[in-house]
Predict the 3D structure of the following.
Amino acid sequence: MKFLNKVKMIIFLLAAVYFIPSSYAFTSPPKTPTESAQKVRVTFTADKNPSSIMPVRLLEGIEIWPAPDESNITHYNVYWGDVLKNKLGLALAPTLAKIEAKKDGGVLVHEFPSDFKMEVGAIYILVCTANQFGEFCGKENNFEKITDPLLSIASKLSHVKKTVKKNQHLPGVSLMATCSDLICNGNETAESCPSDCGEYAQASFNFMVLCDESSLQSVYHPTSVEEIQSIVALAKRNGVRIKVSSGQTKNNTAGSASGIICTDGITMIMNKFDHSQAELGMALEMFEGIEVVNVASGTNLHELGEWLYERGKGLGYVHLGWRHASVAGAIGTSAHGSSPINRNILSHSVVSMDIVGADGKLKTYSRGTTGETDPDLWKSLLTHMGYFGIITRLKLEVQPATNTHVKITFHDEKELFEENKKGSVIADIKECDYGQYNWFPSLKQYLRTCGKTTTLEAEKNANNRLIFPYVDTSALSIEETMQAFQIGGAEPSIDTHQSMAYLRKTGWHITPPLVKTVNGELRYTTNAVGPTHRITSSKLIDNVGREMRQMDWEVAVPEENAQAAIEDIRKWANGLNNANRNMPVPLIGIFLRFSKIEDAALMAYTGAGNGFTNGTTAMHIEFPIFVPAGLPPEDFNQYMSPYEEAMNMLVTKYGARAHWGKNTHSNNSWIFELQRDNKSYGDYLNRYSEKIGQVDPNGMFANKFAKSIGIKYPNFTYPKDW
């Protein structure tokens, strides 16, 4: 009996062994994941010594685009990766983070603890998909390189230095050793380097527009309304015209860089008409049921942001990308920040303005009065261009102060185009309260900047440094830098602009465009929380003893045409242009920014109407480019021609409109004449012109630019030489 029981037990155990795997035919055996994350991007803070050859960075955060199928994934493990994209330390590798799968298709975001130092031997950040049975660490898409190609950078610097030395014979190269230092020296002349040797009374901040009319009258810096009125009376008696300028930039130059700044009469620079005068201070108040800040027109917009932040208030995302605009100046050209979803144009926040008109009288216009009784006049004033008089004070909508958490990540160009999961450039950035791209098409790479309003406290000294970058003159001197750009202008077939684009983009990976204080030291970073007005706006570099010979081609394209337009710009940049050459755009890349379209101003170049749909998003396409000096006219035209071709295409094919305060070199306003003839503003231009004629029938505030854009006056005829 005992023997039979043993036999039965053996048979039972054998049967159990046999049926266990059979049962998995119905329930499937445990499986480890087999799919990887689609994309991984990290943010970091640079080494405290930017020139270190063995930098120790701080890992700030990680963003993971989840695997397409997460049905067998419960979480993602983050590791340091070695040169072969294996876990650094293999089985002994420490897990940096375990991030739960949300399974909603959204990007997973994780912030690391403060002062989280990167492993010196790490080459990559590696993300493995995982569940309770194990993990899968593929080698496609699920990693990001965290080191810099230092040998390649050194080689590129050496190549640029040799190229500069070898090509001193090219036009303008020896000239560029000194040109743009604003001193007439070297082999400069008024013709070859007008910024240094020419005669002019007013200039744009980049010295690309020089107001040199021979009959130019006096320049004034008023400090009171009464003084402004006396200047207007003087101009009226003498029959001369007036132009107002902000004078906010270095040397009291104008913030705009188009013919809009020039006059053959009196120039009134408003750099002293601000809160530095006791009677021109700022104040918070209620007006027409709206909380506003009452501010003098010459007040610097960034300084206003600081004043408001100290009082728990702010202006939102209307701060410009640079900090050198006055309040009235920003409104004059409908200048913008960059937000695809929030108001980012200061003009649209104006509730009231006081203006000294051509008759010398001070008048108040407001949204609740003028906006109701004469809406076209009110909408015209919101992009005034200086043609309605001298603005003395404004009331602007305010809101509670905000902080913005900004992250900058590095990407391959294909992520904006053929691998764009969201379908368009605008769709890719729409999650951001503050968003923009710096795109280097010749490198097939870009930087993505995305900021979101946050309740987190601002980090100490968090600031934007996009246009105030770290400069190491021991690696490449300022003279060599300027000459390298000049060589690319004189002979585009030489690859200096491509080399400089590479150095700019890789330089931003070593010293990113944001800064903050970490452990008592100011460090460059791609991840920072700062007051909105500081973290979205940068000071212009001013510590290298030279003015960059730079201009901006910039237009706004309606959302409906934006993707097709940028696809064509991609082709253009890769050689499909009238010069059949690649276009590196090396200064900061092609700058893509965004504005929420509103129906508030007739001539805001992102305003609703005539192809721009209210409530949608306009895309700004901007080429900040180097402008060579001392070239023969035919060589200069050959260099500039592809850029002008691109702008022409965007205006005529895609309904783009040009930024009123840019798009000018050599005092040439052709693009504004093009959009005038192209009727880019429909009947808005005639309505705008009519309102100017009502308040200034005799053309006291007229200039050549007014003629270029199509303004007509009842009692004033433009001079023949205009």
Summary: The chain has a mean pLDDT of 94. The radius of gyration is 29 Å. The longest strand covers residues 403-412. Residues 39-147 form one domain.
